[in-house]
Amino acid sequence: MIRIVARPLTRENFAEFGDVIDMGGDNHYPINGGKAERYHDLATAEARGPNAHVLISMVRGTPYELPLKLTMVERHPFGSQAFIPLSPRPFLVIVCHDGEEGPGEPHAFITAPGQGVNYPRNLWHGVLTPIGEPQDFLVVDRGGDGSNLEECHFSHAYEIHLPDGAGDG
């Protein structure tokens, strides 16, 4: 088994994989007579293929045992997929570049409280992985005709650990 330690999620270290969704960055401004602050254009939702449309859903994720035994990743050829937590708890994000024979070696990140992610079309990623207790998410992804899910099972497992002190042993 290959050991991978998750690192903190930042815009800079996640840029090659997708978008970080949080109230950071420079693209924000007041609205509603100054009573609200809009953090604008944080991610791009993609929906391609027959009868494609963007869906907004809610998901309640159940935590996995940690360290995580990663044996499979998935991707979506017709649309992006965003996960925005509805609580300030962190969660585990696992992504892989596309290699010549499928997904490459995984990269693992742990979100800061309140951060979300947007995976672009065709990015290999792990399943939704809350840490420690169930967690609710707003999900923005693609609906429409055709299969928008590909899975790849690794020939060997990866063992994903949280950083020291983050609670996985």
Concise structural overview:
This protein has 169 residues and is mainly beta.
Can you put this structure into words, describing what you see?
- With 169 residues, the protein is an all-beta fold.
- Helices cover 2% and strands 49% of the residues.
- The strands form five sheets. Strands 2, 9, 12, 14 and 15 form a five-stranded mixed sheet that branches. A five-stranded antiparallel sheet has the order 3-13-8-16-6, with no helix packed on it. A three-stranded mixed sheet has the order 1-17-7, with no helix packed on it.
- The chain is globular, with a radius of gyration of 16 Å.
- The model has no long low-confidence stretch (mean pLDDT 94).
